[in-house]
Each structure stands twice: as structure tokens, then as C-alpha cells.
Design brief:
By secondary structure, the chain is mainly alpha-helical. Helix content is 81%, strand content 0%.
Length: 72
């Protein structure tokens, strides 16, 4: 065994699964923002949309970067 070091194929698989994880996080946050907006709970709408959008964009950027790493 390589004493804790990952092979190239293992790294690619790890990055691919991490990319899928970040996409799932983005989908869940997007759904949460939509639900919170529909339910009209005691939440500031501007704050909700701003933070939700930033988290979704950040998650998608992270997903894209890890996807690119999985293809190297």
C-alpha cells in the first residue's frame, strides 16, 4: 500500500464525488430559499435571496472546480 497516498484514479473518483456533493448542496439551498420565500415566514426577503444566491453560486463554483480536477 502507498502509506495513505491516493492513486491518480482514486483522486479522480474523490474529486468527482466531491463535485456531486457540492451540486447537491446547491440544489438543497436553492430549494430552501424557494420554500422560505413561498411560506413567507418572518425572514427578510432581501437577506434570504442575497445569502441564498451567494451560497448557491459558491457551491456551483466549487463543484465546477472539483469537476475540472477530476478530469486531470
Amino acid at each position: 500500500m502507498n502509506k495513505g497516498k491516493l492513486t491518480k484514479k482514486e483522486k479522480q473518483e474523490l474529486y468527482a464525488h466531491t463535485s456531486k456533493f457540492f451540486v447537491d448542496i446547491a440544489k438543497l439551498v436553492f430549494a430552501g430559499v424557494i420554500l422560505a420565500g413561498i411560506l413567507k415566514e418572518d425572514v427578510d426577503t432581501l437577506w434570504l435571496l442575497t445569502c441564498g444566491t451567494l451560497v448557491v453560486i459558491l457551491s456551483l463554483v466549487m463543484a465546477y472546480n472539483t469537476f475540472k480536477l477530476s478530469k486531470k
